[in-house]
Amino acid sequence: MSVDPDLPEPDRVEGAPHPRETQTLIGQSKAEAAFLEAYNSQRLHHAWLVTGPRGVGKATLAWKLARFLLAEPADAGTDDGPSMFGDATAATSINISDDHPVAHRMAAMSEPRLFLLRRPWDEKTKKLKSAITVDEARKLRNFFALSAADGGRRVVIVDTADEMNPNAANALLKLLEEPPERTTMFLISHQPSRLLPTIRSRCRELRCHPLSPDDMGVALDNAGATAANNPTALAALAGGSVGEALRLTNLGGLETYQELIQLFGTLPGVDRARGLRLAESVVGKAKETRYDLLLGLMDLFLARLARTGASGAPVIEAATGEAALMSRLAPSQYAGRQWAQLQQELGGRARHGKAVNLDPAALILDMVLKIDATAAKVI
């Protein structure tokens, strides 16, 4: 499967290397160890569901495991034969050399024993399709119909399984029910609860977890993010997701969240002129990305307020003065419930507003005023 460099890839985070280009995985040693244990015990499952929050390294893990398996003898790690290290010595790492031929072929998307199932490019609309279609899933049968070049393993990566439409999911299910020999499938999923129960039941789960601030700093450095960013604040704001942290970094998310903390610092009694300037900052087609960013950050602000009411102010601040503001605005469980209710209400209003093309400035200003009114009620 080749890659057209002029077309966008649905599984690439803007501003970061593609998972196939990332050799080092940060913060997911438990998942690596769980897979290696299964491999060494010769109980390698045919399908693995790689789960966890968006952007924590699930795809990087899947590509790393795929490189490892394709570099190994076909029957190692299965009941058909011992590991390449012999009966006495088990594999101690899933890392392979950057100079290995498999590593080179996978980086160039020219490995014949690997199939990547993802959202395709639509030549008619000149956009990526919104779902993985059944036509893409059916290509797997052609892939399996061809014998591996050296009789070795074959690996499938589905990124992400959440994006399969119902027909594609059913086509994949048939393959999971009757898995081809010497094949391992990695299904990446941000929300496994959305998958067919029959798909989940035929996979073994590999769980990836949010990154700590220290791991976040290392991962951002590896991804080429600027050292000026605050990895501790990014880890808090991004929920331990490197992908989200990169998005926030590229879009000035930390600075925008600081704007929100300063705007809401006077609650109740918001500075309406300042609120209006914030709302007007998202007007225009060129500002769509900032509009989406601001909606997401306002939702996150409300979520953090709700958690503060339930369990106390955040230990790690995502912006200067955030902890004190949260403590003041959410001093009780009652206040936390009110903020949680408002988050749900405004989240629904934002989704509706986007769907019907409501004026962005009007929507943002309305949200600001509703937050102000709730603050007056709970303090």
Describe the structure in brief:
By secondary structure, this protein is α/β, with parallel strands linked by helices.
Mind explaining what this structure looks like?
The protein has 379 residues and is an alpha/beta fold. The protein has two domains: 19-207, P-loop containing nucleotide triphosphate hydrolases (Rossmann fold); 252-378. It has 15 helices and seven strands. The strands form two sheets. The protein has a five-stranded parallel sheet with strand order 2-5-6-1-7, sandwiched between helices. Strand 5, helix 5 and strand 6 form a beta-alpha-beta unit. Helix 10 crosses helix 12, helix 11 packs antiparallel against helix 15 (360-378) and helix 14 (333-355) runs antiparallel to helix 15 (360-378). The protein starts with 28 loop residues before the first helix and ends with a helix.
Give the tags.
single chain, 379 residues, alpha/beta, Rossmann fold, 2 domains, five-stranded parallel β-sheet, 15 helices, 7 strands, elongated
Q: What's the shape? A: elongated
Task: Give average pLDDT, whole number.
Answer: 89
Number of helices: 15
The profile of the biggest β sheet is: 5 strands, parallel
- Give the tally of β-strands: 7
Q: Write down the CATH class of the largest domain.
A: Alpha Beta
Low-confidence stretches: 80-88
Tell me what portion of residues adopts beta-strand conformation: 5-15%
Order of helices and strands: HEHHEEEHEHEHEHHHHHHHHH
